[in-house]
Design goal:
Number of helices: 15
CATH class: Alpha Beta
CATH superfamily: Glycosidases
Oligomer: single chain
Distance between the termini: 23 Å
Length: 440
């Protein structure tokens, strides 16, 4: 009988003898020294505005024990800075249209409240990284008055809304509510790093998630990492997927290719062969030891592209299993554990309606599995992933390896029951179900 396994049951199952050859997924060595705690950590994105009816740090703080029990290690907190009023979108504006890098959005509470949240999170065993918007600011940011020469301008010498090409899917977009900073100027780079140091020193956070990091020079991020590490060892997550970001600056980047492929698999547009190709014929090779963030949702995907139900249908849990067990650090977005079934508004208040947490058990078991097994390390290492031939393109199977530790995963990536074989033994899986076995 195939079932969702408890951790005790997982540890009792036998491993698989037959597997494919090691995969060429890494190239070179990263100079980044990952904090020791990050190797088998899990990450959770916190949308303070929408998390509670109050939308405050203090209100969110009450959820910390629940998240810790679920197995969350790292809290990625969306931007906490005040939001610009000029050219504001909606009633509350974008989280990413900052008006002051050294202050807290009063809608969320005070700087003291934020410090209290960080201290309490640390006391309960979490690490905290802060969402940082270095590429652009709101139109009425304090720097527009103090340093007007720090901004990009058009041919007429005027400020204009920020134009960019999205790295996730290549579409062109204009953000009319923000203006771009000019990183050809060293003063801008130094000023930004000083602002980031302020949060390390004042609040004790453990690092940053850096918004649209691919739009800024890698040399800036290399400088930032050196100077931030001199204050305290940090964990850095880039909203990017380019290998050069992970040579000296960032611990982790987004695994967008896996994210988009999981959607295609859930919609029947791709299957196990496409998943295998992602790892056997990688478009890019990352430095050995680099981390990728694996996910099925985040603030952008939920608000702009769809809920889990819209994107994955009945296959949402199966895709979550893959995101949690393939190489990388699994992300859970606010509300996913409760089966969040609405696109949260981006510029207005739209609180999550918490219920009975129907998916919390799934995430708890997956995150516990990661904690228990070195084979599920977040770092990319040669020989850590082996594909398993099943004889059925609808069933994707693989094994993660670290020394004597083994975790085998088999997932029916379809809406129909499937028969397949592993190591010459006939097996079957119900629609969108999986089997996980592990030994140490």
């Amino acid at each position: 009988m195939i079932r969702q396994l408890t951790l005790a049951a997982l540890l009792a199952l036998p491993t698989l003898a037959h597997a494919a050859a090691p995969l060429p997924i890494t190239d070179g060595v990263s100079e980044v020294r990952h904090p020791a705690w990050s190797k088998r950590a899990t990450i959770y994105e916190v949308n303070i505005r929408q998390y509670t009816p109050e939308g405050t740090f203090r209100a969110f703080e009450k959820h910390l024990p629940r998240l810790r029990r679920m197995g969350v290690d790292v809290l990625w907190i969306m931007p906490v800075n005040p939001i610009a009023k000029k050219e504001r979108k909606g009633s509350l504006g974008s989280y990413y249209a900052v008006s002051d890098y050294l202050a807290v959005n009063p809608e969320y509470g005070t700087m003291g409240d934020f410090k209290h949240l960080v201290a309490e999170a640390h006391r309960q065993g979490f690490k905290v990284i802060l969402d940082w918007v270095a590429n652009h600011t709101g139109w009425d940011h304090v720097w527009t008055r103090e340093h007007p020469d720090w901004y990009k301008r058009n041919a007429a010498g005027e400020l204009e809304g920020y134009h960019y090409k999205d790295l996730s899917d290549g579409h062109e977009e204009v953000w009319a509510d923000v203006i771009g900073l000019d990183y050809s100027k060293q003063a801008v780079r130094d000023g930004m790093i000083d602002a980031m140091k302020f949060w390390l020193k004042e609040t004790g956070i453990d690092g940053f998630r850096c918004d649209v990091a691919w739009t800024l020079p890698v040399a800036f991020w290399d400088q930032a990492r050196r100077e931030l590490d001199a204050v305290k060892p940090v964990f850095m997550l880039a909203e990017a997927d380019t290998p050069e970001m992970q040579a000296r600056a960032f611990d982790m980047t987004y695994d967008w290719k896996l994210y988009h492929l999981l959607i295609d698999v859930a919609k029947g547009k791709a299957d196990a062969r496409d998943l295998a190709k992602l790892y056997t014929v990688p478009a890019r090779k990352y430095p050995a030891g680099a981390m990728r963030m694996t996910f099925t949702s985040n603030h952008d995907e939920n608000s702009w592209n769809g809920t889990d139900k819209e994107l994955y249908g009945e296959g949402a849990d199966a895709m979550a299993v893959l995101a949690a067990t393939l190489p990388g650090m699994p992300l859970v977005y606010s509300g996913q554990e409760d089966g969040l079934n609405k696109r949260l508004k981006f510029f207005d208040k739209d609180p999550i309606q918490w219920g009975k947490m129907p998916r919390a058990g799934l995430y708890a078991s997956l995150l516990a599995l990661k904690h228990a097994h070195p084979a599920l390390s977040s770092t990319m290492e040669p020989g850590n992933l082996e594909l398993i031939e099943t004889g059925n393109p609808k069933v994707f199977a693989f094994r993660r390896i670290a020394g004597r530790d083994r975790v085998r995963v088999e997932v029916n990536a379809s809406a129909e029951a499937q028969s397949y074989s592993v190591g010459g033994k006939a097996r079957s899986l119900a629609p969108w179900r999986w089997a996980i076995s592990a030994v140490r």
